[in-house]
Amino acid sequence: MKVAAGLEITFLGTGTSHGVPMIACDCAVCRSDDPRDKRLRTAARIRTPEVEFVIDTPPDFRTQVLRENIRRVDAVLYTHAHTDHVMGFDDLRRFCELRDREIPIYATPGVFEEFRRTFQFAFNGSSGGIRNYIRPEAHEVTGPFTLGDLTVTPTTLPHGRFETTGYVFSQAGRRLLAYFTDCNAVPEEALDAARGVELLVVDALRHRPHPTHMSVEQASAAAAAMRARQTLFTHMCHDLGHTATEAELPDNIRLAFDGLKVTLP
């Protein structure tokens, strides 16, 4: 079922690379009974009246798709090639089978270099067009592009010694959504691309500083600098309990959680 208008984002996962609860951890958040403290690896599904796509395919992708009953994926956008964001890649083959067609994959040239090493079977032609094999259709992201009724503006974000791609989604000239995961800062160019955005989804790993991710304080400052109307934190580790963390935040900044749906009319 399509959304009636605007854009809908579903948070498939909101956790860091370990997920929450973390293996062999007995901290208060890992033992929490609050379902919002259960976090699969970070990914999202976007729907508009014209297009349905996902951002990243983590190792939990199959579980996430089944939970949300996703039956259509028109495209996939990748932020970067780290394991916790790409290792559900082969589960996309079911969507190729359902529609008997290639699936458009959007990523930077550097990410495709990694994909051609990691997923040789998908890019070396060995699938032979077989219906139930994954058949990626590569679209290199080097500047803004159109996806359905959205204009997508990519922006480069620092992730320690790596770089990731943030995406700003506009519809009819309105900046609806900025999706900035896995970054330890938001450079001025990215701030400008998302200035005044209606919803910012941004990396906020924990309270303490981290060399490759933003802290709650840094993410809050980035949201204020770009004048985002509403902000949702994602890619959170087990240091952040949902209820306790939200109690310390302003009303326009909340924590996302797995399964959360937000509609921007």
Kindly identify the CATH topology.
Metallo-beta-lactamase, Chain A
List low-confidence stretches.
none
Question: Which strand order spans the largest sheet, edge to edge or round the barrel?
Answer: 6-5-4-3-2-1-14
Rg, please?
18 Å
CATH architectural name: 4-Layer Sandwich
Order of helices and strands: EEEHEHHEHHEEEEEHEHEHEE
Structure at a glance:
It contains eight helices and 14 strands.
Labels describing this entry:
265 residues, alpha/beta, Metallo-beta-lactamase, Chain A, 7-stranded mixed sheet, 8 helices, 14 strands, globular
Tell me what you see in this structure.
The protein has helices at 61-68, 83-86, 93-99, 109-118, 120-123, 188-193, 216-225, 242-246, and strands at 7-13, 43-47, 52-55, 75-77, 103-107, 136-140, 145-147, 150-159, 162-171, 174-180, 199-203, 230-234, 253-255, 261-264. It has 265 residues and is of the alpha/beta class. It has a single domain, classed as Metallo-beta-lactamase, Chain A (4-Layer Sandwich). The strands form two sheets. Strands 6-5-4-3-2-1-14 form a seven-stranded mixed beta sheet. It has a seven-stranded mixed beta sheet with strand order 7-8-9-10-11-12-13. A hairpin with a 2-residue loop joins strand 9 and strand 10. The radius of gyration is 18 Å and the shape is globular.
Write the layout of secondary structure elements.
Blueprint: E1 7-13, E2 43-47, E3 52-55, H1 61-68, E4 75-77, H2 83-86, H3 93-99, E5 103-107, H4 109-118, H5 120-123, E6 136-140, E7 145-147, E8 150-159, E9 162-171, E10 174-180, H6 188-193, E11 199-203, H7 216-225, E12 230-234, H8 242-246, E13 253-255, E14 261-264
Parallel strand pairs: 3-4, 4-5, 5-6, 10-11, 11-12, 12-13
Antiparallel strand pairs: 1-2, 1-14, 2-3, 7-8, 8-9, 9-10
